[in-house]
Write a structure and sequence with these properties.
With 256 residues, the chain is mainly α. It is built from 13 helices and three strands; from the N terminus they run βααββααααααααααα. It has a three-stranded antiparallel β-sheet. It starts with a strand and ends with a helix.
Length: 256
Amino acid sequence: MSHSVGQVAGFAGVTVRTLHHYDEIGLLVPSERTPAGHRRYGDADLDRLQQILFYRELGFPLDEVAALLDDRGTGRIDPREHLRRQHGLLLARIEKLQRMAAAVERAMEARTMGIRLTPEEKFEVFGGKDPEEHAEEAERRWGGTQEYAESQRRAARYSKDDWKRMQAEAEDWGGRYAALVEAGEPPAGERAMDLAEDHRRHISRWFYDCSYDMHRCLGGMYVADERFKEFYDSMRPGLAEHLRDAITANAARHGM
């Protein structure tokens, strides 16, 4: 029994474009094709796709996924070994995320209640980076602007639930944008520009009224400032530049 590319996309929760891309790079080549050249996927193909998506969810880039699945080109694949490896990776990731969630929860509680974090807690939450250092830099760079003043006023009113909603929105957007980049969508395409517009509206909703000109400036900073670039590229390599170009295209679409 075999399945069409559309059916497989529906099963796996990925786009048809993603499956086409996996085929083009040799990561997931369908085992059958119709006389008309249409892709058909068998059970072994679905098993391989499941393994690919496991590793992608764990943050492995596509070239490393290919090396893992094909035993670095030897063609020897042991599904049980992949499952054991993935089980260990998932347990390690769960443990790390649980520690991070507990640390962030303590930080949110402290901020909400007006309690200053101890140096030990700061390093635990922010991985060795002092958040006050960035706050001071932000004040030096933008402290005299209306946008900075407005963001400070708004942030002072937010409850713990507000921060949770904000974080959930940002994570949802990041997941959708990373999937778009992975699928090979161009920055000037409708989907990319729509997500760039969502990004601008998120800033306007939570921090300050972000104009298209301001958004364009931010897009440039996401690439020029290595810290912002590292943050966005951690979602998917190349995402920072892709987002900058999508922001520029979206501003042009709105006449800016």
